[in-house]
Amino acid sequence: MKFLLRLSLCLALFFQAGCKTPNAGQDVAVVRAEQTLSIAFDTFDAFLKMEHQYRKETAERMPEVHKFAEWLREPVDGKPRGISIIESANKVKTAYKANRSPESKVTLISALAAVESALSETQKHLTRIK
Amino acid sequence: MGIAEIIALAPSIIKLGSSAYEWIANIRAAARQQDEWSDELEAAFQAKLDDAGKQAHWQQDPK
Which residues of chain A from 69 to 128 reach within 8 Å of chain B, CB to CB? Predict the structure, then answer.
């Protein structure tokens, strides 16, 4: 099972790294932001599904993994934190699309950094679920 | 691990494999993206987030 998860993670990272170049006329910052949001959501969701499936065992044998899963689930503004982080970055992206200034691009990059940090932590914990 | 244990674990392994397969398929689709989301795709993504928030695996342990 551990092998299956590691293989899945490697394949996912391979495909993540192999992102296609945005079409001409498309804003690279927006396309990359949407890719990041999409990948982050799917990774959070897959991690929480797997952790939920072995919730009791994970809490007993890998408390730090369970603790992180609970952190992602913790309600923030009425929604689980993982979803809230993504929604908030998506709102920044929408604001950037309405006003593509260098300042709003910097704000978008900062919002994405929070998503990428949670994504990287999730990937780390995902490999530990056996 | 005996045969009986492996058989008992089979549904979990299938479920886990299915989750991993779905995850990879979604990530592949995201990696192929070359255009900004249309309004429909944006709405579909938001609907996916709204729906996920109601799923059991997104809920915290009861305190």
Answer: 70, 73-75, 79-80, 82-83, 86-87, 90, 94, 97
B6-23 confidence digits (pLDDT tens): 677 677 677 777 777 788
- Please report the ipTM that was assigned to this predicted complex: 0.80
Residue B62 · residue A53 · CB < 8 Å: no
- The CA distances from residue A66 to A54, A69, A119, in Å, are 10, 5, 16
Phi, psi of A79 (to 5 degrees): -130, 155
Counted across chains A and B, CB pairs separated by less than 8 A come out at 122
pTM, two decimals, is 0.81
B46 membership: H or E segment, kind and range: helix B39-52
And the tokens for A82?
């993982």
B19·A49 Cβ contact <8 A: yes
Number of alpha carbons in the 13 Å side-chain half-sphere of residue B53:
20
